[in-house]
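Notes from hallway chat w/ T.B., transcribed later so I don't forget. T.B. wanted the structure written out for a chain they're using in a teaching module, and asked if we could keep both sequence and C-alpha cells in one place. Agreed to drop them here.
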Amino acid sequence: MTTSSPRKRIPYGIMDFTRMKGDNCYYVDKTRFIEEIEQANSYFFYIRPRRFGKSLTLSMLRHYYDIKEADRFKDWYEGLYIYGHPTPERGKYLVLSLNFALVNADLGSYQQAFDVHCSLRFNSFCDTYADLLPEGTKEGMNRQQGAVAQLDFLCEACFKKGLWIYLFIDEYDHFTNKILSSPETLEAYKSETHGTGYLRLFFDTVKGGTDRGIRRCFITGVSPVTLDDVTSGFNIGTNYSLSPQFNEMTGFTESEVRAILDYYATTCEFHHTTDELIELMKPWYDNYCFAEESYGRITMYNSCMVLYFIDNYVHYGGQLPRRMLEDNVRIDYEKLRMLIRKDKEFAHDASIIQTLAEQGYVTGQLRPGFPAEQVTSPDCFISLLFYFGMLTIGGETRGKNRFIIPNQVVREQLFNYLLDTYDEIDLRFERDKQSDLAADMAFDGEWQPYFNYIAECLSRFASQRDRQKGEAFVHGFSLAMTAQNPFYRPVSEMDTQRGYADLFLHPLKEIYKEMQHSYVIELKYAKGREPRERVEQLRQEAIAQAQRYAATDTVQQAIGHTTLHRIVVVFHGMDMAVCEEV
C-alpha cells in the first residue's frame, strides 16, 4: 500500500533539526518537552548514553529559541506539538552553541584546542548577530586572549545592549573518557577542573555571565564525572538526568517505535507485522530506564539502533538486517574499553561485570555525580556503567538500587569485556574457530565441540577465587561465552531458590533462515569435593528440568521450524563431567 505524498526519509545519522525538516525526514516529535524545559531551572544539565538523540534535541532547541529564526517557526515546527503550544521565550535569544566533541581530548594540547574551537564559534556568533551587537564587538572580542576572556567580553557586550544569550554545550565531558583510561593523566585532569584550571575557569566565566548576558544554558554529556569536578565552579546548574519528567526526552518509547513502523508499513515493502518487528527489536534495543520513578511504567529504546534497523529493513525490501548491532555503535562501545581496567581494580573476586554475568544484576546506590578520583569505588563505578548505558534501573533490593543489563546489544559488549578480564590471553573465540563451531551448531546440530571448547576455556582460565565461587562462576562464564554466538540470543533464566539455571539459545531464525537447530541447556554444578553420586543426582534433576523448560510456551513459540535439542551439562568443580542430549 502506498500514499500519494512522498515517503519521509529515515533520519538515520542526522543530527541537524532543520536538515531533517528540510529533507522531509520522519521526526519523532519531542517538542512537547520544550514547555517542561522552560519551566525548569535556567541552567540545565542532561546526561544520556552515546547515540541517544542528544545532539538532535539540542539542534531542535537552538532553532526554536534563535531570534534570527523567529520568522521560520512555521517552516520548522508546523505539524509538531510546539507549533500549537508556543512558549513565551520562543525566538527571544542570541544562540551560542559549543560542541566539545570537536576539541582535542589530549590534555597536553587541550587548552589550545579549546581556545580554537571556542574562537571559531564566537566569531560565528558575532557574524550572525552583527546587526544586534554593539559596533566593533567582533574586533574587540578577537583582541582578547583565549576562550575565557573572549566569553567574558561577549557577555558584557550583550548585557550593554539588553540582549540575552542561550548557551548550548554538547558533549561537555568529551575528554573525560580518555582521562579515565589513562591513570597517569588523572592529576593533570584535576588541575584543569579544580582551582585555577582552564576548564574550571571557563565554567566560572559561564556562571559569572548568567547575570550579565547568559540567561539560559543547556549542557549535555554522557557522564556526570566532569560535572562534579567543575560543579563548584558552576554550582547554579541543575542536573535533570534522573528526573522522571525528562525520562522520555531522548530515545524512543515503544509507542513511538510502533508509530514509525506503522508509517513505513504503508509506504514500503513490509514482510512482517509491526508486532513481529517489535518482538524482534525489543530484546536488542529496549529496556532503558533513567528515573527510579519511571521503573515499571515505561522503558526506552535506543533511537539510533532503532533507526539503523528500520533503515536497513526498508532499504532491503523488507528483509531483516543480518547484524542487529551496527558498526558505529560497536565503535562507540570500543571507546569504553577503559571499563575493563577499572573493573580489574576491584580485584578478580569483586568484579562488577563478573557479578552481572553470574547473578544477572548488581546492587548499589545511584550517584547523581562523583569526581573522577572516586570512579573506582563500587557505587561510583556502577553509576558510571549506568550513565554510559551499560546498566539500567531494575528495581530495588534491600534498600539499594538494583541494576540490570538493559538488552542484548549491551550484554554482548559487557560479556566481551568480562572475558578480557580473566587472562591476558583473549578468550573470545578465534575468528575461524568461532565461525566453524557456531555454524556447525546452528546448521548441522553439532553441539558437542561447542560445549567442549567452553569447558576447556573455563577449566584453563579459572582462578582459585573463581573455583571457590563455583556455580555462579560456571554459569556466568558459560553465559559470557555463548553470548558471542552470532546465530542465537542467549536467554538465561535463573531460579536461585531451587538452585538451577536454564539457558535457552533463542535462534535468530528470522535473520538466518537456513539454520536448523536450537538449544535448551540445563546447567548444573557439583562442588569438586562432592562424590560422583551427587553428579548423577544432578544429572537426573537436569533432565527433568530441561524437558519441562523445553515444553514451555516461551521456548516452543521461539524455535519455529528448528529442531530443539535438550542439553544437560553438569560440572564437577571446574571439569565438565556430563554433556549429553536428552
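Follow-up for T.B.: Residues 17-246 form a domain with the Rossmann fold fold (CATH 3.40.50). Might be a good example for the class.
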